[in-house]
Structures
1.
Amino acid sequence: MEKRILITGGAGFIGSHVVRRFVKSYPGYKIVNLDKLTYAGNLLNLVDIEDEPNYEFVKGDIVDAGFIADLFSVYQFDAVIHLAAESHVDRSIANPMEFVMTNVIGTVNLLNAAKEYWKGDYDKKRFYHVSTDEVYGALGETGMFTEATSYDPHSPYSASKASSDHFVRAYHDTYGLDVVISNCSNNYGSHHFPEKLIPLAINNIKNNKAVPVYGKGENVRDWLWVEDHARAIDVIFHQAKTGETYNIGGHNEWKNIDLIKLLCKIMDQKLGREAGASEQLITYVTDRAGHDLRYAIDSSKLQHNLGWVPGLQFEEGLAKTVDWYLENEQWLNDVTSSNYQSYYETQYAER
Ligand code: NAD
Ligand code: TYD
């Protein structure tokens, strides 16, 4: 094996796309997917590659330092690509401590294990931390986040990711660990848990349920096809210089309400409904506390230095995403069967 790579959070939305890409593209790498399988982690996301000889799944918690140390000693990793996290802003508002534990303590546990097991060999190892544009805070009507933008997180989620980013940089500056960080905009695509805007809206439209739009629907997000994100991670992992940060984004800004209307139009066509039928489901609800107005990523550093550009155009990606959810009813039923209903009722009853 050329490299033994630990990918954390590989059973989640983005992680499953990253695991699939690395397992398929690099038969010479051994990919170990470590995941706690929280409500957001699902091994069904990886059934197509689970029997590949260069893939192994390990169930475990990054908050457990002893377990992480043992894992490093058993597998002798050459690199870590760290995606495991609590990732939903609304849940962070309801329960911030889980975000501190997984996103901050879990990340520091991984850094400590890397620092210990890679001692004397830092130039041959790599710790890749996957982060979010939300660490930069909120933009007004204009401007974009660059790699030089100061951190200004507003939600417990973004504060915990910002904190983990700072620890990763501190381990580079203090101990000389080889680290890279990328901060990406909102992803969309298949296998996305239906608590986030796009899959939640698809699920609700499909079931003729109200589509909750926070506030006036005027908040803006920059949407990127998840497989374009996985490709960016591949490029950055292999080509970035040590200590570097890259912003990843789609140059694809949408007001929430415009996005939902486009989704309704696509779904009317796919479901054979009368034009305008699904839009009737749009329901404005109480805004999210501390709701960031606008995110927009300037990814020109990545484009110029490493030649990455976003691939899929948004309308096409959204239509493909809708197709995937309509064709994978069993997956949707599975992920919405256990605690999802109680989460949904608590989250949306208060609005
Ligand atoms: P997700 O919630 O879909 O998946 C997270 C995964 O981490 C799950 O499989 C879960 O079981 C696992 N996990 C959670 N706690 C764990 C723990 N303590 N130990 C081990 N595994 C644990 O998240 P996602 O949307 O795929 O995001 C992945 C990463 O990318 C996160 O770090 C997130 O901050 C970042 N990110 C996400 C987006 C986005 O739009 N979703 C954008 C930019 C960055
Ligand atoms: P989300 O998918 O939770 O991602 P993030 O908060 O990390 O950007 O939300 C995307 C946008 O959609 C955000 O502005 C909040 C809004 N939103 C709604 O209007 N209704 C919803 O039910 C959800 C989940 C989000």
Note: The chain has one domain: 3-192+223-251+294-312+340-348.
2.
Amino acid sequence: MNTIGLIFDLDGVIVDTAKFHFLAWKKIAREIGFKLTEEHNEKLKGVSRVDSLHRILDWAGVSVSDEKFNEMAHLKNIDYLTYVDKMNAADILPGVETFICQAKAKGYPIALGSASKNASKILKHVGIYDLFDVLVDGNSVSKAKPDPEVFIRAAQKLALPVENCVVFEDAEAGIQAANTAHMLSIGLGDKYILRNAKYVFPNFTEITLEFIEQQATKK
Ligand code: B16
Ligand code: MG
């Protein structure tokens, strides 16, 4: 069987940082008189920090100077990192670490494909940084998901053709990116929101490595 490369999104797949992004963005939105809801937050999943702030300002119907924009993005990140600093191994989502360890034991290379500029910091906090052979994050790509750049870069760093790569994603934008990259897309979360994924599971306790191997090799 050909080698398969497994590419994991971070927020929503390995850890649930969406709740911390939500708290931090809510505070920024409140300052401009806008009430950010869970529905809005869903649309920020997998979206870069800068694009997230553009969306919030659009929803609020507010425009700000470049200087103010940068300050808002900076303050959001400072606040967000106060939550990240308290993260530990207990924040790893159910089943994902076991799945990665099983895949590594079979020799499959493991990559991270995240929009976050804080990805390394988060992986170190929760103690699984060393499980990754390749990291592609918000610091190493210029185009945000749904652009496939993050996953194509990961395949290049894994030295594998895109057809041999499997992407695990929790966001609509990420599934779109994986599909555009011609990779097998596995959604983690809501079946309706992730309806464009090839397969959707509620979490990693429901996924077996055998199933992924079968699907990846019959593509
Ligand atoms: P940062 P992922 C994404 O992570 C989050 O889902 C998204 O809400 C966030 O805006 C983005 O990272 C950027 O994060 O502010 O830390 O650079 O799902 O692509 O792992
Ligand atoms: Mg995500």
Note: The mean pLDDT is 96.
